[in-house]
Amino acid sequence: MIEVEQLTFTYPGAQGPAVHDVQFTVQSGEIFGFLGPSGAGKSTVQKIMTRLLPLQSGEVRYDGRSLRTLDRDFFAEVGVSFEHPNLFPRLTGRENLEAFLGLYPARDGGHEDPLAVLERLGLGQAADKKAEDYSKGMKQRLVFARSLLHRPAYLFLDEPTSGLDPATARVVMAIIREHKERGAAILLTSHDMLVVDGLCDHLAFLHDGTIAACDTPRALKLRHGERSVRVEHRQNGVLTSETLFLDDAEDRRYLGSLTASGEIETMHSQEATLDTIFVKLTGRELAA
User: Judging by beta carbons within 10 Å of its beta carbon (0-12, 13-18, 19+), is residue 186 exposed, middle or buried?
Assistant: First the structure.
């Protein structure tokens, strides 16, 4: 479990904090979505949590252990896949993974098989190709593979499906779910709301360095959306489409009459999207 409490950080020379009073919890065996536009503070929080930035104010605990007291052995428990690849360009994909594994002792359950992970991510045929000759998407998949090899207890994934084709994105999502099932606490950032909706147990919206909302995706949709259905029906022989609101008594009566008439051709429930909820709460586009 990861606990973040009242996290505040100010960059040198800045007039105000980049993040202020941020707090959330990521349970073991949970995927926590951390969402916000560029400049909201997501990277700052992750860098503090992974000790790339100092902990100025607040607290971060890993299974009850304060980040302030953890030694270098802590890094053997963390897997990081950030959006900008940092690889050994003159080594092959396989050699990159083997070099990384050499830095870490095997945890409970052992290591992942590097070649098997590469094969699953569509990099098997490029395993012995130098990383400098990989495309951007291939490098991204290689960094993702590297973050999983030592089966970390805490996994930080930044835009893990960005730029991937749909089939490969589904594979990446399936692998993330598998690491959730083995008990990893996973912090995920993404601008792809289908990925977030499909993966995350809880999520937080970060806006101007503070958390604007934090809950399950379903709870956020129910709280900030309107219960409605979109109905297609025949009216005097013409196909008509209407949105009816279930909390409106007149719309409910009208829907009942349409149902009784047998003229409804399609009917779909409507719910707020995570994008629209974010705009509603912050006034900004999530992908901005």
Answer: buried
Which is nearest to 88 in space by CA: 139, 48, 37?
139
Would you kindly state where each structural domain of the chain is located, as residue ranges? 2-221, 226-270
CA atoms within 13 A on the CB side of 185: 17
Listed residue (52, 115, 114, 112) closest to 82, CA to CA: 52
Among candidate residues 34, 42, 37, 143, the one with its CA nearest the CA of residue 83: 143
Question: Tokens representing 25?
Answer: 């919890």
Q: How much is the mean pLDDT over the chain?
A: 89
pTM given for the model? 0.83
Cβ–Cβ under 8 Å, residues 185 and 26: yes
Confidence of residue 108 (pLDDT cuts 50, 70, 90): low
CATH architecture of 2-221: 3-Layer(aba) Sandwich (3.40)
Which of left, alpha, beta for 201 (phi over 0: left; psi -120 to 50: alpha)? alpha
Report yes or no: 98 and 114 within 8 Å, Cβ to Cβ.
yes
